[in-house]
Amino acid sequence: MLTELQKRKLMKLFSMYDAHNLGVLKISDFERLAKQLAELRGWKPGTEPFEKITSRYLFRWNRMRAEIKQTLHARNDGQINLDEWLTYYDIVLNDSTYEEELLALVEAVFNVVDVDESGHLNKDEWTALFRTYNIPVIYVEETFARIDRDGDGVISKAEVLSMIREFYYSNDPSAVGNYMFGPI
Ligand SMILES: [Ca+2]
Ligand SMILES: [Ca+2]
Prior knowledge:
The chain is mainly alpha-helical and 184 residues long. The chain has one domain (4-171): EF-hand (Recoverin, domain 1), CATH 1.10.238.10. The protein contains eight helices and four strands, in the order αβααβααβααβα. It has helices spanning 4-17, 27-41, 48-72, 82-92, 99-113, 123-132, 140-147, 157-169, and strands spanning 24-26, 79-81, 120-121, 155-156. Strands 1-2 form a two-stranded antiparallel sheet. α1 packs across α4. The protein is globular, with a radius of gyration of 16 Å. The model has no long low-confidence stretch (mean pLDDT 95). Residues 148, 150, 152, 154-156, 159 line the site of one calcium ion.
């Protein structure tokens, strides 16, 4: 069972996907996120990197739809509502075999957002991530400072992966990763 803290965080994540504030997610939300990420690099539809990041988001969409259908016996209405979203995460966060899959998307996103391919994210890149995911940029400064654990002024992939693990899994209200995308 998801804890209340986990639910808060997953609601935040849902809102990051729900760019048009409709309360339901559609495949177009997943496609749009991939497209906006590709635009950070100037990748056009039909190019290999564009199709690669898009296929990762479509894989996640299809995975969610399949789990929801199987668990809730929900008919395929082409949408994912909040209850279904939480049901999906209740399944995958309690199955350790999914951890690698969850983190694979994070790593792929990191690599796209690392526009100058320096191997880490600077504040401009972190800001671009927030814009892409519909997170108010007023939270850039405080989240950046918290996630930059070693204080070297940039966010490493290791820092992101350890924080996102806390975001998904931690039940400790004081865990820094809870707030990696701003208040929950
Ligand atoms: Ca960079
Ligand atoms: Ca750092």
